[in-house]
Amino acid sequence: MRVLRRDPLARILALACLGLALTVGLGTFARRPVAPQVVRPPITVSVTGEVVRPGSYEVEFGARVEELLMLAGGFLPTAARALVQLAAPLTDGQAVVVPALSAPGGSARVSLNAADAAQLETLPGIGPATSRRIIEHRPYARVDDLLRVPGIGPKKLERLRPLVTL
Asked: What distance in Å separates the CA atoms of residue 79 and residue 51, rounded to the nearest whole number?
């Protein structure tokens, strides 16, 4: 039986085609898929209280309270700046209230971190037991931290919010 020899030129062409096919194929697999681009529309938020220009503002998705306050012209001199969380993120439809240094009616706010039991008991719904627990849970970084105090829930916190400071 006679062995057929292959044509060397045919071998070279076959190997070249195989190499080209592998290069193109691997190049296709090596490409990374393009991530879909997420479009986030602007959000609308409002700010009231002790700011220069209270009202509704349109801000970019992901904006923070500080950016909203800049749009509103900043704080008034009567603003209780320490009670505003500047780094808090905003959500669509949110209302930000900038409280005044003094409580409604002109009286000074009661300091959660510095007031004694007698001063705390001047607040509505705060008796001797609750004032003692407020003192025990000091220090407070924000007014919402009052929720850690047994006997103070969300409703009582909202009643106290305009009357207290840090």
From this structure: 7
What CATH number does the domain located at 110-165 have?
Answer: 1.10.150.320
DSSP letter at 58 equals E
Given a contact cutoff of 8 angstroms between Cβ atoms, the answer to whether 78 and 101 are in contact is: yes
**pLDDT score, position 107:** 67
Task: Tell me the pTM.
Answer: 0.51
**Residues 140, 146, 150: CA angle, nearest 5 degrees:** 125
Instruction: Supply the DSSP symbol for 6.
Output: P
Q: Which of 46-60, 63-77, 116-130 has the lowest mean pLDDT?
A: 116-130
Selection from 87, 89, 99 nearest residue 160 by Cα: 99
Residue pLDDT, tens place only, 62-120: 999 999 999 999 999 888 887 888 999 999 999 998 888 776 666 678 888 888 888 88
The distance from CA 133 to its chain's CA centroid, rounded to whole angstroms, is 30
Between the alpha carbon of residue 74 and those of residues 32, 79, 109, 164, 165, the distances in Å are 46, 10, 22, 22, 20
For the four alpha carbons of 137, 138, 142 and 143, in that order, the dihedral sign comes to: positive
